[in-house]
Specification:
about 400 residues; mainly alpha; Rhopdopsin 7-helix transmembrane proteins; 12 helices; globular; receptor
Length: about 400
């Protein structure tokens, strides 16, 4: 009886031991993407296409359109280049990571390279936005000095180089071993370096300081434009009316003198002997000159108001896209409770959306960019269709006679 019980126990132990490999033979079942992952990957792929196409159009428009080759658009081109590289090199691995269930299988070296490239390009994009804000601030507050002495494409090139050097300085410390990663970290996860010192350093340099600069610049531009509006509505119009009144009085006095001089014409005098109409003509020219000057001031304030509106949308989109991510990024090393696994990738994609919307902001507010985009896309498509559909031209009778090969 005991022998039968022992055999039964051995057989059950054999079945239990033999069933263990069947569970370990299919580890890939855990990595099959769910339908939500597929939907998110499709949406992210559309975002990648929009980012690449939009920023490519911005760069092509600046290169091919003479009206867009300005100093400000040099910074816009640098911004578009950084955003284009985000769409080409940073977003696609994130889509693969989403499809793989958040597991990184490309090795630690490629993980560090991808994270460093992400920080470099996003920081360059943010600092380019900051440079555009500073350029607009100087152009509005110091239009004469900045446009004549300090504003040149060479200076813009130097500022763009400084932007990329600063981005590299913020990115490079972990690569140089200054802030090593935690030893016990999960190597199947490719995440940012969460060393508290580096988090503070990178968050301040990549986001919070540029954000404060952009907010200050926008506030100053708004104050300057509001002050010019008030001076134009009150002092400018009043001074113009006073100067026109003085000129009107002078015109009346000139006309009175002319009437006194010509009230009793001498015998034999002709029209050539009368005083000329030059004083009245010069006064009218002065009136027209003042009105032209007033209209130029109004146009300048209108342009500055449009600039402030564009800058407001740029700064607002930048803050809305990146502020949630950097708040979580800065708080994670100091909070004992880890955030949900899906929160950091979601906020990262929200930040990358800023690289996709920047071309549409400039296209919406700039007629030159809209015209250049239309010329680069729809106009060429229409021309190619017209060329295909147009029948070949037959030689006319005159060209037949002039052709030397047929003589």
């Amino acid at each position: 009886m005991s022998t039968m019980q022992n055999e039964t126990a051995d057989y059950s132990n054999y079945r239990c031991n033999s069933s263990e490999p069947t569970v370990e033979q299919n580890p890939q079942l855990d990595y099959l993407p769910e339908w939500t992952d597929l939907v998110l990957a499709a949406l992210f792929s559309v975002l990648i296409v929009i980012t690449i196409v939009g920023n490519t159009l911005v760069i092509a428009a600046v290169i091919t359109t003479r009206r867009l080759r300005s100093v400000t658009n040099c910074f816009v081109s640098s911004l578009a280049a950084a955003d284009l590289l985000v769409g080409l090199a940073v977003m696609p691995p994130a889509v693969l990571l989403q499809l793989n269930g958040g597991t990184w299988e490309l090795g630690e070296i490629l993980c560090d390279s991808w994270v460093s490239l992400d920080i470099l390009l996003c920081t360059a994009s943010i600092l380019s936005l900051c440079a555009i804000s500073i350029d607009r601030y100087l152009a509005v507050t110091q239009p004469l000095v900045y446009s004549r002495r300090r504003r040149s494409k060479r200076l813009a090139g130097v500022m763009i180089i400084v932007v990329w050097i600063l981005a590299g300085a913020i990115t490079s410390p972990p690569l140089l071993g200054c802030f090593p990663r935690a030893v016990n970290r999960d190597r199947r996860k490719c995440s940012y370096n969460m060393d508290s010192s580096y988090v503070i350093f990178s968050a301040m340099g990549s986001f919070f300081l540029p954000m404060l600069v952009m907010l200050y610049v926008y506030a100053r531009i708004s104050c300057v434009i509001a002050r010019r509006h008030r001076s134009l509505e009150t002092g400018g119009t009043r001074n113009l009316q006073r100067r026109l009144t003085v000129l009107g009085d002078r015109t009346k006095s000139i006309r009175m003198k002319r009437s006194e001089n010509t009230s009793v014409p001498e015998r034999g005098s002709t029209s050539c002997d009368r005083p000329s109409d030059e004083p009245e003509i010069s006064t009218t020219c002065k009136k027209l000159g003042l009105r032209t000057q007033q209209q130029s001031c109004i146009n300048r304030v209108a342009r500055e108001t449009k600039t402030a509106g564009t800058l407001a949308v740029v700064v607002g989109g930048f803050v809305a896209c990146w502020l949630p991510f950097f708040i979580l990024y800065l708080a994670t090393p100091f909070v004992p409770m880890a955030p949900p696994d899906a929160l950091m990738p979601a906020l990262t994609w929200l930040g990358w959306i800023n690289s996709a919307i920047n071309p549409f902001i400039y296209a919406f507010y700039s007629a030159d960019f809209r015209l250049a985009f239309w010329r680069l896309t729809f106009r060429k498509c229409c021309k190619s269709r017209m060329t295909i559909n147009q029948p070949p031209k037959l030689p006319t009778h005159a060209s037949w006679k002039k052709d030397p090969s047929r003589t």
